[in-house]
Amino acid sequence: MKGRLIGVILMIIVLGFSTTTFAQRNGQQKEAPAPGPAPRMADGKPDLSGTWRWEAIGSDPAVVPIELTLWGLDKFNWNIGPETANGVYAGRLTRVELDPVMHCYPPGLARLGPPPDGQRILSQGTIVETGQLDIIQTPGKMIQLYSYGHEARYIYTDGRDHPKNLQPSWNGDSIGKWEGDTFVVDTIGLRDETWLDGVGHEHSDKLHIVERYNRLDSETLEVERTLTDPIALAKSFTTRTVGKLTPETDFHKAPMVDCKAYMARKPAFGEGINGLLGINDHP
Amino acid sequence: MQLTAWGVDRYNYNKLPKGNGAHPEFDPVMHCYEPGLARIGPPLQVPDKSIRVWIDGESVPFPGGAAAMDAIEIAYAPKKIWIVYQYNHEIRLVYTDGRKHPQEYEDVENDLTTTWFNGFSTGSWEGDVFVIDTTNLHNVAWLDNLGHEFRKEHVVERFRRVDAETLEIERTITDPVGLAKPYVTHATLKLTPNLTFHANVLCEQYYFRDINYGFSGLMGINGHPWQTPVETPNPTWQDVEHSK
User: Fold this and answer.
1) Contact with chain A for residue B61, Cβ under 8 A
2) DSSP codes joined into one string, B181-215
3) Averaged pLDDT score across all residues of chain B
4) Does B116 sit within 8 Å of A279, measured CB to CB?
5) CA B209 to mean position of chain CA atoms
6) How far is CA A74 from each of CA A70, A118, A232, B189, rounded to the nearest angstrom?
7) How far apart are CA B70 and CA B188, in angstroms?
8) Cα end-to-end span (Å), chain B
9) What pLDDT score does A136 carry?
C-alpha cells in the first residue's frame, strides 16, 4: 500500500522584481515614530482595524516548503508541465494558461494571503502593489478588504458556527473568535476551482485555513496562517507574515478584478500567451 | 434619461431590435468586465434580476434573491469611508480627508491607471447630508443594463439617513458626451443588521439567461467585440446571429 507519496517541493515565491517599486515607496515615507502599545477596543480586545501593508512584499524571496499528496503532486506536475516535474520549481514554468486567475476567476482565499500571491500581476507594464489588507472591526463581524483583486471578506464574530449545508464560495465561510489577545479565524467551504498559489499547486474543497492575528504593537500586525487539505497536502503548512500600519490606502492604484490586468503580465514572462484568455477557454 | 446624439447612437448600437433590452453580447458585464459605479447603484442594475449561481454542477437561484444582492455595507474608517456592495463584491473607497480628484483624465479606454470602474470618490458633509463626488470612471462600463454608454461620467451621491432604519440616496449622473441632461435617481434602503454576505457572483453566472437568446455557453472577455473591431458599424441582431 503506497499511502501517500510525499513530494517535498520548495515553492520559491519570486518577488525580486517588485523591489524597485518598493524602494520608491520607502523613499517617500517619512521617519515613523516609535511604535507604542497595541490600541484596544472598548471591550478590551486589541484593535486590529487599519490599513496593513505586508512586509514580505519586495523583500527577500520567501521559501515555503509544501508537502503534497499524490493527488496534489499530480495536479502540480500538470500545471507546471513535465519538464520540471521532478525538479525544484524555478518560478518560470507554470503553465499560465491553466491558471484560473487568467480566466477571470477570483484568486480565492488561499491566494489572497497573507502573504498575498498577487505580486506577480502586472498592469500597464508596471507591477501592481497588491500587498494591502484593510481591516474594519464592527460588532458581530470583521470586514477584510484586500487590495489584491479588490476582494471583500466577512468574518463573523457573533458566535455562530459554520453553516450545516455550506455552499462553497471563493473566499469560504469564516468565523472568528478571540483566544486571549489573538484573533483566530477559521475558514472552510472554499471552492476548488481556485489554486493554492500562483505557482500551480491546487487545493480541494476540503481546504481548511486557520489564521491567527496578533497586533504586536501600534504599528505591527502578525498573521500566522495554517493551511490544511487532506486531499492535496500531505502535511499542513504554515506561513507567518508581518504587516505594518500604513496611513495611506492605495486601493485606487490597484485595478479591480479586471481580467485584462492579469493578461498584461504576459510580456514580462514570455510564455507565449498572446492576448486575453477569457473564462470560456479554460480547460 | 435624455441622451445626446452620441448617446442615442451608442444606445441604438447596443440595444436589441425588438426593444428587449441590450444585446447580451455587447454588454461588458457579460465579458467579465466590472459593472461600474452606475450599475452597482443604488438602484442596482444587474443584467438579470433572476440571476443564478453555478454550484456543484447545478444552477441554483442566488441565495437570498435579488434583494440580497442589492445590499450595501457602509464602514467608517479614519479619513475614509468604505462601501462594500453585495453585488459582485464591489468595494468603494471614499476619501474624506479633503483631497481632490486626480487631474482630468484622458479619454482612453482600458486605461487602468487614471480611471477605475468605481472611479475616484471624495466625500464631505453638507449639514447632515454626506455628499460623494466621483470622477475618473472607466468608460468601458455602461450606465445601465439597457446599453446606455458614457465617456466623461460624473456621479454625485447624496446620502441622508432619514431615521434609524432608513437611508436615502439621491444620485445625479452627468456626462457631457452621452447625456443631454443630468440623470437623477432615488433609492431608499432599509437597515438589515443580520444580512449574511453571500458568495460573490462570478461573470460565468450571467450567461445562463442567454440560453433564451441563443447563447448557450460562456463568452469570456476575449469574445467581446472591442477585442476585434466590428466591420459593420450597426449590425442587426440577425447579422450577429449569422456571423456566429
Assistant:
1) no
2) S-EEEEEEEE--TT---PPPPPGGGGGGGGGGGT-
3) 76
4) no
5) 18
6) 6, 24, 9, 50
7) 11
8) 33
9) 93
pTM, full prediction: 0.78
Q: What is the pLDDT of residues B185-234, one digit of tens each?
A: 999 998 987 777 777 666 655 543 333 333 333 444 434 444 333 333 33
**Smallest CA–CA distance from A257 into chain B, residue:** B34
**B222 with A145: Cβ contact below 8 A:** no
- Polymer length in residues for chain A: 283
Question: Which residues have CB under 8 Å from B78's CB, separation 6+?
Answer: none
How many cross-chain Cβ pairs, A to B, lie less than 8 Å apart? Answer: 113
Helices (H), chain A: 19-28, 70-80, 109-112, 259-263, 266-269
ipTM computed for the complex: 0.77
Segments making up each domain of chain A, as ranges: 7-36+43-281
- Whether pLDDT at B138 is above 50: yes
Q: Please judge whether B227 and A261 are an interchain contact, meaning their C-beta atoms are less than 8 angstroms apart.
A: no
What are A73's three cell numbers?
503532486
CA angle B67, B63, A113 (to 5 degrees): 110
A29: left (phi over 0), alpha (psi -120 to 50) or beta: beta
Please give the DSSP secondary-structure letter assigned to residue A2: -
Angle at A30 between CA A27 and CA A32, to 5 degrees: 125
- Give the range of the structural domain holding residue B34, as residue numbers without chain letter: 5-243
